[in-house]
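TICKET: design request
STATUS: open
ATTACHED STRUCTURE:
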């Protein structure tokens, strides 16, 4: 298959088109604007619909409407824009609608900066709107993996009828790397058993709704949804384990931070330090079993993030605080360097053994 050199944002857009996305609604915001611009050029030519909404709030509700008809729909934004989309995502979860949301994170809170960050972890995994619900959250670490994750995100959204988020960041969105795209999908799941796609008197009406005024009925709906979440937790976790065999110090990091950490681990291993890297590819559900395997020989965990520390709480919870865990992070759009992470490794291990 032919390889192309593409910027991460544009690669995300092309991958979405190839896996059957027919509706994209968005609003420009740095550092993801190239994604929307690419969609504006390509969607009509590929038989889809692109619309720049008047706001992020409008965009996510357009996604809700399109998803309710059974088509593959997507939106993208960056941190403050995703905050505005949160209510609509909650409505989609309450209506059991599949769609893909991409967050190319930047520094915050508030308008913050336009530089890369990872400070939306809590929002994505813990608080993406009101009510009892989860969304699947993927965290790719390269342009190629972002391309691969788009197809996975749409497929899992359809399989479990849930919104899915790809949590990228400004570094991944703006970098250029060679990528290989999948062949365009020609067959998509049949959603006629639930979608509001016209019935022509051949079946009962399908109602897309998240309002249940009867408390026991809403409880039953939520409980049924959590049965699906249980299946997702059992079947859909994924992680990369790098040099974890025999590792006495395991770094936990995701996305762009994991790229930095991998370089530090490689250098540490070359100098005889027993370090390894655990990189979750799914942030929700968090890969608990995979972390247990990665840390089976560990005496210490070093959590590295481009934030003040958010994933570290899931790391501690997953290990039941059995292993001492230290945090190192940069925030506000500052990217940690491999040298900084390596220095932290040396502090915790005392150098080469």
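STATUS: resolved
RESOLUTION: sequence designed for all positions
ATTACHED SEQUENCE:
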């Amino acid at each position: 298959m032919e390889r192309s050199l593409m910027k991460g944002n544009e690669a995300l857009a092309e991958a979405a088109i190839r896996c059957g996305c027919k509706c994209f609604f968005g609003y420009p915001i740095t550092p993801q604007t190239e994604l929307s611009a690419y969609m504006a050029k390509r969607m009509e030519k590929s038989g889809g619909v692109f619309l720049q909404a008047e706001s992020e709030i409008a965009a996510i509700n357009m996604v809700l409407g399109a998803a309710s008809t059974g088509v593959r729909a997507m939106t993208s934004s960056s941190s403050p824009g995703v905050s505005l989309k949160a209510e609509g995502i909650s409505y989609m979860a309450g209506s059991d609608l599949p769609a893909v949301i991409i967050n190319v994170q930047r520094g915050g809170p508030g308008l913050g900066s336009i530089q890369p960050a990872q400070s939306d972890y809590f929002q994505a995994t813990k608080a993406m709107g009101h009510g009892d619900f989860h969304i699947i959250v993927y965290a790719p670490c390269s342009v190629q993996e972002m391309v691969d994750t788009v197809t996975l995100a749409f497929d899992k959204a359809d399989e479990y009828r849930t919104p899915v988020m790809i949590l990228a960041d400004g570094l991944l969105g703006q970098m250029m790397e060679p990528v290989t795209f999948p062949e365009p999908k020609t067959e998509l799941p049949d959603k006629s058993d639930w979608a509001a796609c016209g019935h022509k008197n051949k079946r009962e009406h399908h109602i897309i709704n998240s309002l249940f005024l009867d408390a026991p009925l809403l409880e039953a709906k939520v409980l049924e949804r959590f049965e699906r979440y249980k299946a997702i937790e059992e079947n859909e976790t994924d992680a990369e384990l790098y040099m974890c065999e025999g590792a006495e110090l395991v770094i936990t990091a995701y996305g762009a931070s994991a790229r930095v950490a991998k370089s530090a681990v490689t250098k540490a291993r070359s100098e005889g330090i027993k370090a390894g890297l655990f990189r979750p590819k799914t942030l929700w559900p968090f890969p608990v079993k995979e972390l247990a395997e990665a840390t089976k020989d560990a005496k210490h965990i070093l959590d590295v993030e481009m934030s003040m520390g958010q994933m570290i709480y899931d790391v501690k919870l997953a290990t039941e605080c059995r292993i001492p865990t230290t945090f190192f992070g940069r925030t506000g759009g500052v990217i940690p360097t491999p040298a900084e992470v390596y220095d932290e490794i040396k502090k915790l291990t005392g150098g080469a053994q």
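CLOSING REMARK: The two ends are 45 Å apart (CA to CA). The chain has a mean pLDDT of 96.
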